[in-house]
Design goal:
By secondary structure, this protein is an alpha/beta fold. It is built from nine helices and eleven strands. It has two domains: 112 residues, 3-Layer(aba) Sandwich (Rossmann fold), CATH 3.40.50.10090; 124 residues, Rossmann fold, CATH 3.40.50. The longest helix is centred in the N-terminal third of the chain and has 13 residues.
């Protein structure tokens, strides 16, 4: 069956040159965006119950824009004035750039990885005397705390926000040719919202090994995978598949 409609389980990209726009124009497909999960902040009282006192830390580890937003939200709720001497260790340039929403970039000590968390390891070793705080979601890759413990640095994790399943009941009678997932939480949301979901001719596209495992464990048939050496992005994987299927 040809591909005409795609549902991406994420918010719509805000950038004007989104690769999804190119996919729509080139393949003449309809692409909708709908977050299957969303983030809700926990309150300052909850953070205090985790025995987190912001004044105890000299460095913040930021893995996403959500972690940036919720660190500064909690700081405001706790009436904690973040000192100019605070060091920020950002997983990627995108996270570091987003940090400018809250601090004057050139006046702060900001250290940046290229993309992967492991690229910060040499910086953690260099600044082992710091007290690190990792503001995170309730869902965290096990490899992150494992790596930080192995580096033997002084660090704590604070759960500042939670990943929550979105209500998708309005999609019950809506059909898409392809459903696109980027996390195990997205798969979980599909099954929680639609426990009687039958895949039939619906194609499932997944990004990342953990999402592959979640989809397989859920008994779903995976038709499109990314990243691969040939298709490092989801839009490239979708385009390759659509081109192959639609030309028949």
């Amino acid at each position: 069956m040809k591909i005409k409609t795609i549902l991406v389980s994420q918010p719509e990209p805000k950038m004007e040159n989104s690769p999804y726009l190119r996919l729509i124009e080139k393949e003449k497909v309809k692409v909708d965006f709908r977050p299957f999960i969303h983030v809700e902040g926990v309150d300052a009282k909850n953070v205090r119950q985790q025995k987190i006192d912001l004044k105890d830390y000299t460095a913040i580890i930021l893995t996403s824009r959500n972690s940036v937003d919720h660190f500064f939200r909690i700081a405001e709720e706790m009436r904690f004035k973040v000192p100019d001497t605070m060091k920020y260790f950002c997983q990627s340039e995108a996270v570091a750039y987003y940090l400018q929403k809250y601090v004057v970039y050139r006046k702060r000590k900001i250290y940046v990885g290229k993309r992967n968390f492991s690229e910060l390891f040499h910086l953690f070793k260099k600044y082992k005397e710091e007290s690190f705080l990792l503001p995170s979601s309730d869902v965290l890759k096990p490899s992150i705390p494992k790596s930080l413990n192995e580096l033997e640095i002084n660090w704590d994790r604070g759960i500042f926000y939670k990943t929550v399943i979105s209500d998708l009941s309005d999609l019950r009678n809506v059909y898409y040719d392809v459903l696109v997932f980027f996390s195990p939480s997205g798969i979980e949301s599909l099954l929680k919202n639609f426990p009687d979901f039958e895949q039939k001719d619906t194609r499932i596209a997944v990004f990342g090994n953990s999402t592959v495992v979640a989809a397989t464990d859920a008994g779903l048939r995976i038709d499109i995978k990314a990243p691969t050496p040939e298709t490092p992005s989801m839009t490239m994987a979708l385009q390759k598949y659509i081109t192959s299927v639609n030309k028949k």
